[in-house]
């Protein structure tokens, strides 16, 4: 698949945190009302991201009617949000809470309503606080990639980062 993103050649390698979620296990929620992974959002992606056995994760997402963009196919923004969530969860494997600073999505094929997207994301490495990831999605045949993404996240101090807006959080 053609894409423009070029990760730096001198990325530092990373290893799993000793307390990282085990392979095959669901990586815990960011929080229960997160649009990407929360259980308590009436409209949300409800993604369950599963740890791989290295620095990778997987997730599946049924493409349901409210996700429609063009007639009969997924909206590109919904797909981008799913990539954001899946790639943004993977750094928990190295014990790093992060936020997105850059996300690039390549849309290769139309993705029909009624299909199920299978995501895979992997950590490529880091440079200081910057964590680089690559991800792809298929509809059941891993050889047929329908979309791919590259993401750059920056590690944060969770308490400090969200302090200013925490009192405005939505509680359901
Ligand atoms: C309950 C648990 C929940 C845990 C939270 C989990 C939630 C995950 C949810 C899914 C993910 C999301 O949607 S997150 C929501 C969307 N994202 C955000 O709201 C982030 C908004 N941005 C920010 O708040 C800020 O930019 C920060 C905090 C990320 C970085 O600011 P900073 O701390 O001042 O650091 P700064 O020096 O600017 O940047 C650090 C390094 O990153 C580089 N950098 C920064 N931005 C970019 C960029 N767009 N493209 C390239 N590089 C960039 C800088 O050059 C620098 O590199 P160098 O000079 O060091 O080389």
UniProtKB/TrEMBL annotation:
Location(s) in or outside the cell: Cell projection, Ruffle membrane; Cytoplasm; Membrane
Thioesterase domain segment(s): 72-142
A GO MF term: hydrolase activity
SUPFAM superfamilies cross-referenced by the UniProt entry: Thioesterase/thiol ester dehydrase-isomerase
Record carries keyword Cytoplasm: yes
Top EC class, one word: hydrolase
GO biological process terms held by the UniProt record: fatty acid metabolic process
Record's keyword annotation contains Signal: no
Reactions that this protein is recorded to catalyse: octanoyl-CoA + H2O = octanoate + CoA + H(+); tetradecanoyl-CoA + H2O = tetradecanoate + CoA + H(+); decanoyl-CoA + H2O = decanoate + CoA + H(+); dodecanoyl-CoA + H2O = dodecanoate + CoA + H(+)
EC assignment: 3.1.2.2
InterPro entries linked: HotDog_dom_sf, THEM4/THEM5_acyl-CoA_thioest, Thioestr_dom
Alphabetically ordered keywords of this record: Apoptosis, Cell membrane, Cell projection, Cytoplasm, Fatty acid metabolism, Hydrolase, Lipid metabolism, Membrane, Transit peptide
GO cellular component, one term: cytoplasm
Main localisation: membrane
Membrane topology: Peripheral membrane protein
Family stated for the protein in its record: Belongs to the THEM4/THEM5 thioesterase family.
Protein name: Acyl-coenzyme A thioesterase THEM4
């Amino acid at each position: 698949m053609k894409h423009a993103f070029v990760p730096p050649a001198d990325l530092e390698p990373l290893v799993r945190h000793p307390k990282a979620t085990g392979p095959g296990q669901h990586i815990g929620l960011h929080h229960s009302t997160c649009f990407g992974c929360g259980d308590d959002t009436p409209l949300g992606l409800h993604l369950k991201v599963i740890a791989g056995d290295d620095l990778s994760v997987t997730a599946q997402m049924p493409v349901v009617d409210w996700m429609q963009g063009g007639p009969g196919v997924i909206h590109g923004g919904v797909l981008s949000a799913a990539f954001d969530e899946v790639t943004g969860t993977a750094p928990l494997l190295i014990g790093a809470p992060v936020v997105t600073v850059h996300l690039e999505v390549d849309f290769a094929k139309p993705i029909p309503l009624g299909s199920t997207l299978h995501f895979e994301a992997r950590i490529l490495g880091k440079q200081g606080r910057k964590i680089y990831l690559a991800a792809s999605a298929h509809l059941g045949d891993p050889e047929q990639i329908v979309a791919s993404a590259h993401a750059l996240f920056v590690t944060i101090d969770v308490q400090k980062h969200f302090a200013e807006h925490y009192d405005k959080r939505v509680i359901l």
